[in-house]
Amino acid sequence: MTLKLIAAIATVLFATVSTDLAHAASVTAEGGLVAVSDYRFRGLSLSDRRPALQADLTVSHKSGAYVSVFASTIDEYGQDASGKGATVELDYTAGWAFAAAGLDFDVAASAYTYPGGVGVNYVELPAQASKTLGAWTGSVGFAYAPEQHALDRDNWYLWTGLDYNGAALPMALSARIGREDGAFADQKTDWSLSASRTWGHLQASAAYVDSDQGGGGLVLSLAARF
Prior knowledge:
Elements: H1 3-21, E1 27-36, E2 40-41, E3 44-45, E4 52-61, E5 65-77, E6 86-100, E7 103-113, E8 122-133, E9 136-145, E10 155-164, E11 172-182, E12 188-199, E13 202-211, E14 214-225
Antiparallel strand pairs: 1-4, 1-14, 2-3, 4-5, 5-6, 6-7, 7-8, 8-9, 9-10, 10-11, 11-12, 12-13, 13-14
């Protein structure tokens, strides 16, 4: 699947869903097209330190229930006997966002799929809690992937983050640190610092992403949000 095809599919999806949902006050949709200089996931590059094109779409109900899809070009993954593998990642998520005890919660189930890859699709269960005080939001999250066909053992990822989005600065700031162990990593720690600015439907960001099991790097992105 080429970059042009991903962009075309995403554009059609956004236009179709936005039109259909304009008449449903209880349902909203948002999404975007993003160009990144490097696709980093939990500190590690999934695009071999090369640029990637991404698209995402989330449809939410006023109850807090939502479904989303995410697509990104990746370095070839899950090769078959002929040496060919997936060059696109497609993720599907169903979840519920709600407030309780003064906190905001989000619990979900996600399927990570790699069309054309062999034996690499897997399911993960993420959850997070956050608290906003003024312009600051603190969050903590946990993701668990049980042992399954693509994983020879279970995998867990624990992270915490702090975000700032206030009038005192012309940009939003974010900091993250995570710890992962299991099928995908052996006691890995990753971290990131980022700054972003929005102009209408456009958003630009710069982030430094690193881990103790892979070299760090600057990641630049430009997104069109709808």
